Amino acid sequence: MTGFALGVLFGAVVAAALTWVVGGAVARARAAGLAAERDLLRERVTDLEAAAGTETELVATLSPLSSTLQRVERQVAALERDRVEQFSRLDEQLNAVRVSGEALRQQTAALAGALRSPTARGAWGEVQLRRVVEHAGMLARVDFSTQVGGVTPEGVGVRPDLVVHLPGGKHLVVDAKAPLAAFLEASEQPGTESSRAAALHAKALRAHVDALAAKEYWAAFQPSPQLVVCFVPGEAFLASACSADPSLLEHAMGRRVVLATPTTLLALLRTVALTWQSEALAGNARALFELGRELHGRLGTLSEATTRVGRSLHRAVEDYNSWVGTLERRVLVTARRMEQLDLTDGEVPSPAPIEAVPRPLTAAELLDPVDRESA
Fold this sequence. Notes:
Layout: H1 2-114, H2 118-135, E1 144-146, E2 150-151, E3 157-158, E4 162-166, E5 170-175, H3 181-188, H4 191-215, H5 217-220, E6 228-231, H6 235-244, H7 248-254, E7 257-260, H8 262-340, H9 369-374
Parallel strand pairs: 5-6, 6-7
Antiparallel strand pairs: 1-4, 2-3, 4-5
Helix pairs in contact: 2-8, 3-4, 4-6
């Protein structure tokens, strides 16, 4: 029993020692784990504190940017609202332009249809011509005449649309019957057909130039510049013809025909009006010269009369002074003797002689030739 008890006791001691050793290792391991966990938590806390500081700084840094972004958002919203309004207005304007374009197209088509008639084209050209002349400030039957008949030296009667009167009795003839039918066809046909119609328009205008040159309007209205003005009632008509026939203008000038659109004809007529003004100024200058000569002659006559008046005044002063001297020597002496004898109550005043004399003429223009030589 004793040995068994000792064995049991030894086993118990060994078990207790083992338990203590194992418990210490477990405790140390747990302590090490707790220490490691503590260190991790401490690092985590440090990281969190650092992150919190960084976030604070980031918030402080981004705060102005946030307000700026808000302003940008408001501006973008305002711009978007304005863009929508502008697009709405633009859409309205585009609709208005479309409506106007459609109305213009209809009116152009109606005008083109009306101008297909030669009579209507001629009347429209004459109306356009008259409007240009009126814009130039000219008066009918004063500065120009319409539908004036004339006869060439060969006995051929002509009747141009307009005759502009130039200074010196000269005349400038204007014709307003330019062909437009081919141009109207070109405006309605696309592509190659349009080019062919434009070439026909240029050919028709060239033929009209040759016809005007053959009529020799300038010979029926002498004196006149050796040319005739062919009025083309639109810039597009002449531009289309010149594009199809670049030598058209040179050909016309060689035939003494001037192709004039409303713009160029207005400039020409304004030049004529300026010539009339220069002629009027020259006439006024001549009239002023004649008035000056007449005034100079009248000044000479007036100077002669003034000289005679001055001489008369000088003689009158001399006669008056002589009369005063006679009065003092012949009459007043007796009157004074009567006063000395107390025969009168008052004294007879003695008139004074005139000392001033008329001022003589000194200007050379007012002196007679004899007086000038003596002066």
